[in-house]
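Worked Example 4.2. Consider the chain below.
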Amino acid sequence: MTRAHPQPASRARLASVLHATKEVISIDATAMVLDLDRSAAAKVLSRWREQGWLRRIGPGLYVPVPLDLAGSEQVVEDPWALIPALFGPCYIGGWSAAHHWDLTEQLFNETLVFTTGRISNKHVTAQGVAFLLRRVSQHRLFGLKHIWRGSVRVNISDPARTMIDMLAMPETGGGIDHVADCLSAYAKSTIYDPHLLIRYAEQFGNGAIFKRLGFLAEVLLQDAALAGACRSRLTRGYAQLDSSLPTPRLHTAWRLWVPERWKKTTP
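Applying the procedure from the previous section yields the following structure tokens:
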């Protein structure tokens, strides 16, 4: 079925909206560009979608459909460019950031996004790309870098913050074994900054981070200075190295329950 071409006036209006909004088109942006109220702008976008010139990717969000990709599931060259519009104040983190910073070669099926917005569904698919959402509080939006994906600025956790997130929540790093591998790669890299790890851990405000980081610094990295910095900041109580694993062994020095395979490290 051949799609009808928009009339010259409609083509000009669409072109003006595309010029102003680049990759992602919203109702509010359309209303501003065309000097319409939100209801009228929504109807215009819906009509353009019905004509096959736009594709809806989320509530009130659309992307342009090039003619040669009209039948394709993915019409945006770089789906990361959709992240700010889809998920609001947010950043790419965890295993996705670790791969971006060359801390791991392992690829995961979902792009991990930390967002301050309300999450009704943790698993979201847009443009054929699967996203996994995790909630983050506003005061934890620190340690971020800005990267450009086309004309869109996207936030991503820097290497040290990536490690802190994964140490706070090992599941966001694919489990503690993969987190340990990423930490080892980070420690061997030219961007390794143990002082920044400590500062971020203090700012994050989760005592389990110092237990896990100190333990791994001692038994994996053999970094006595980093281990000592963590030991001086140990909080009361006990934590698990990874709550998703059986952790029958207590490492008393680090107040940390660890898996059986780490038993040689327990006093």
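Residues 67-75 have pLDDT under 50 and may be disordered. The two ends are 72 Å apart (CA to CA). Compare this with Example 4.1 before moving on.
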